[in-house]
Design a protein that fits this description.
With about 375 residues, this protein is an alpha+beta fold. It has helices spanning about 5-10, 15-50, 75-80, 140-145, 170-175, 180-190, 205-220, 230-235, 235-270, 275-280, 285-320, 335-360; strands spanning about 55-60, 70, 85-100, 100-110, 120-125, 135-140, 150-155, 160-165, 175-180, 195, 195-200, 225-230. The protein is elongated and about 90 Å long. The mean pLDDT is about 80.
Length: about 375
């Protein structure tokens, strides 16, 4: 009988208890995969949206909210002629309810600006001008809202017409209701206001050059902040809070798993007191007894991690199909996240087994004679 066989046999001695312990660990690891994957996917989705629009720098007032606050459109006029800036486009972007969808991206874009250029029409057409009471839907938004070209759509208190359905090349773009900035300003009473400026830099500028350009923009517009596209989400207070909450909630679930494994291993040591004492009597070293208990707890962690990853992936796949967030994010279920999750589970198993392992190593051969 090999050492590994002894470890496996120890876990199979009480299959129901072992199974329940695995469930506890798995739920904690599933929470890590789901919550962290969704948080990272949120960042990645918006970053991809910037890339397909070929936006190099984003100027906004994004602070503790998910959508930036409005500021005067003349801010764009102050920076558009800076050396190193090839083009600018003012936007008003909000996360809001649209008809039956409780959360959807509404992206109002300056008519004629480069932020319209990435849209590939799948059906219908673009609006004729910036005043036409019309919208273009990303293909996911059209699916969620069950709209086709020619259908009316209620936006705020106004009824507009869907004139086109487009592929924007990124999940956030495809999940958006897109219309002209001028029209949206009129609908919402935000004339002369925007909350984002997309900036396209002169071709050939490297990252240090973009950082210098951001500094120049910040000096001209102290009421807003310029960041390299992609960094503006990761550095926002709202996203840092979401990231911290996702890890914090996950770790709470993992702690429950720690307690479950520790309880299981303590019960194992208690029930196998005679067996462990006999092993000591026939020459097993205390270190080998310790490794046996730690091996069992580590194997519990490994199996719980694998099962937890599978549960987390299934949970995320179900969640991303919910109408309330469909088309808003693409969870980042990377191999790196899976490996980290399984490693966390193994560490949880080993940590939970430390005290039971120490208790088992304190037993004496004479304990085998006790009833």
């Amino acid at each position: 009988m090999t050492f590994t066989t002894i470890i496996v046999r120890g876990l199979l001695r009480r299959p129901v208890r072992t199974g329940l312990t695995l469930v506890g660990i798995s739920i904690g690891i599933a929470a890590v995969v789901a919550l962290v994957g969704i948080a990272q996917g949120f960042e990645k989705s918006w970053e991809n949206g910037m890339k397909v629009r070929q936006t190099d720098i984003v100027v906004n007032t994004l602070g503790s909210s998910l959508a930036p606050k409005p500021f005067p459109m003349e801010v764009r006029d102050r920076i558009k002629d800076l050396p190193g800036i090839a083009a600018t486009c003012g936007l008003f972007v909000e996360l809001t309810s649209v008809e039956d969808s409780s959360m959807m991206v509404v992206s109002a874009r300056e008519w004629g600006g480069f932020s319209w250029q990435n849209l590939k029409m799948l059906s219908g057409r673009m609006p004729n001008d910036g005043t036409e009471r019309a919208v273009v839907l990303g293909q996911n938004a059209a699916e969620t809202l069950k709209k086709k070209v020619g259908d009316p759509i209620q936006l705020d208190v106004e009824e507009l017409t869907v004139v086109g359905i487009a592929d924007g090349g990124a999940l956030v773009e495809n999940g958006s209701v897109i219309l002209s900035l001028q029209l949206y300003q009129q609908l919402t009473g935000n004339e002369g206001k925007i909350n984002i400026i997309d900036v396209r830099a002169t071709p050939g500028i490297d990252k240090p050059g973009l950082e210098q350009l951001c500094g120049k923009i910040d000096a001209l517009v102290p009421e807003a902040r310029a960041l390299i596209a992609g960094d503006h989400i990761a550095n926002s207070e709202a996203f840092r809070f979401i990231r911290a909450m996702s890890w914090g909630t996950s770790l709470l679930a993992v702690i429950v798993g720690v307690l479950g494994v520790m309880n299981t291993m303590l019960m194992t040591v208690f029930e196998r007191k005679q067996e462990i004492s006999i092993l000591l009597a026939i020459g097993w070293k205390r270190s080998r007894i310790t490794l046996m208990i730690l091996g069992e707890s580590a194997m519990l962690g490994l199996m719980g991690g694998i099962v937890g990853v599978l549960i987390g992936v299934i949970g995320v796949k179900i969640t991303e199909r919910l109408p309330s967030i469909h088309g808003l994010l693409e969870p980042d279920l990377s191999a790196r996240l899976f490996v980290i999750s399984v490693l966390i589970s193994i560490v949880v198993g080993v940590f939970s087994g430390l005290y039971p392992a120490w208790r088992s190593s304190r037993l004496t051969p004479s304990a085998a004679l006790q009833g």
